[in-house]
User: Fold this.
Amino acid sequence: MLAAMLMAATPGQAEEAPDTRGLYLQLIHQARADGRPRAALAYLDDFERRYPGDAEARLLRVNSLIDLKQIDAAEAVVLPPETASGGVSAVRGHLLAARGRWDEAAACYERASRASPADPLPRNALGYALLRAGRVGAAIEALRGASDLAPQLAVVRNNLLLALIMGGRRDEAEAGLRRAGDGALRQKLAAEAARIGKGG
Assistant:
């Protein structure tokens, strides 16, 4: 419904309705959240005809291309100047992480986390990058911070459990797995820990 409304609007109508930009961005974010990065890119193409040079749209384009593992194309997008929220640093971190440059990615996520200290997602990304860089203790600390901010967020919980497993903190990991109540999660995290341990 939202997509139909937006696509029916003419560029002139978009100028008359200031909230149209926000609705478009909501649609693009939702497409990514639903695992439809190609739809997100299609909406972005239309959005950028109406709002050329939009900084948030460029960040969304990079993230959507990363979702599709089109890293060369993602790196070719010209990023806007850094924002107060640290969004550009986070996206730079995603690009570096996609290339396996975990220490550099962690530095970007650290900047993003400092810019938005109450946002759990940069802390989560920082923790995972630190884990992949072999800095397990620092990873656990970052992920504990993310977990405190968003205790119900599964990706944060899973990354913290993974870091605890890789850090040899089996009792804490076991307690977390019991709380999660997901029988398949144990095997999934064990397999991921083994893959990372082999440099995968």
In short: The chain has two domains: 1-80, 110-200. Residues 1-80 form a domain with the Serine Threonine Protein Phosphatase 5, Tetratricopeptide repeat fold (CATH 1.25.40). Residues 123 and 145 are 7 Å apart (CA to CA). The mean pLDDT is 90.
